């Protein structure tokens, strides 16, 4: 187990160290790694969630892959991911750069910004459901026609609402990441740019943005992998509707598995979810040249 | 408590501190785009929160009759009374049990693992463990809930609070290890060496040296995990069944089914489920924010 990789130069850390990692490893293997292998195995089995499990070969995969529901759910998942990324990233960068400034009121705003992150998705979904109710919500009460539309009744409105609520919940977090990153940009870069006569906008695009590259990668990775797990919010807000307009993969998995008691096909969907997550993380890592893991190793 | 929604506690003091610590660039360089976005976003965040708060204080009849943005002339706590008189206190206790029961072991085992990974980087085994945890960051762990459900049934834990605690610990580990190991790497090697010269074991060094030095990170990770677990919805939804095992988010959802027409009551429930975590935020805000920026921002 404890394989030393090089000849000891100074005194080695003692062999107890691997054992210190053991408890975390046990939990992680038991409830993440084994389930990860399990979900793959279950995708080749029949199970109704209660009775016994029977091997079923490729039936589930054939059923899932030929079902028109899958491309649709994949498409919706991809759309939610791409659109929410495109909405959240520029706003988070702007807000982060803004919050990194020093006026007093910015700190106060920053305190309020963070509040949506404290609310559960359930609370947020219920709040927006009530707030945007076409008959009794805020639009009706204030006589604002735009706000009193039937948000949950029309596919594109429901989709837009999901994007808005997701952004409302998570932009605060990402702007916080950018705020921290902007503060770490060396001041001398801006001073040099100012001597060269670069204006604000030029400075933002030539210094701030390039310096934020790794933060963009980190933040995007969290956004993209996170968007695969949007379940509770969409489940409560739209239940995947109207029709299947907001039925993302995670919701599809839940509905097939725990509502229709088809754990086999649901597991196949889960495997697809895992593969999509892994592929995206690898892609982002390649784009960025390094990821969270590498960035720590540099310090080692 | 609820006033924190619109009026954060001691803002001036925070601002002064942050102002001192921070560099002064933006004061000189005006950021109009950021400023505009900043205030716009403030409204987008604050208006719904304000609406939730004032509506939860309205009579049901007043809710349908009054201007939604105007606070009630005769605020009432009846909605809160109604929520508290239901089983909410027991859901609250369930949430506390699950959050504490999962966060304490999760942070403890993650800290031990992070220490081992940072100190034992020469062990190939520990580098592999680190890689495994990092993989957990890239994979949506919610995709594993079906086998987790199966395991919980096989362990005869279905419909118990322990069923929520065990997977929550596992789900919390990847991020906790990442943040804690990032902090531990900043502890000067000389400190560890001098502990060693003094004859301290790794175990002593872990708790006597590393833990106090990483306390801000430990607090950050604890709060962050508490937040995630407190707000968790999927695990309680699939791993419990009886109302007596509900946690707050699940209770909120079923409460809406029960009292859906009584919007002020639903919103009072929203405020009540959020209040404890808001208190925690007020208490540990600075550490949470600085910890998160440092933990992810490198």
Any overview of this molecule?
The complex is a heterodimer of chains A (300) and B (298). Chain A is mostly helical and 300 residues long. Chain A has 15 helices and two strands. Chain A has a two-stranded antiparallel sheet with strand order 1-2. In chain A, helix 1 (17-42) packs across helix 14 (263-288), helix 11 (213-227) runs antiparallel to helix 14 and helix 13 packs antiparallel against helix 14. Chain A is globular, with a radius of gyration of 24 Å. The two termini of chain A are 22 Å apart. Chain B is mainly alpha-helical. Helix content of chain B is 75%, strand content 0%. Chain B contains 15 helices and no strands. Chain B has helices at residues 11-21, 25-28, 32-55, 60-65, 78-85, 88-119, 124-138, 145-154, 161-184, 189-197, 202-213, 215-230, 234-239, 248-259, 263-296. In chain B, helix 5 (78-85) crosses helix 15, helix 7 (124-138) packs across helix 9 and helix 12 packs antiparallel against helix 15 (263-296). The longest helix of chain B has 34 residues, at 263-296. Chain B is globular. Chain B starts with 10 loop residues before the first helix and ends with a helix. Chains A and B meet through helix 1, helix 3, helix 4, helix 5 and helix 6 of A and helix 1, helix 2, helix 3, helix 6 and helix 7 of B.
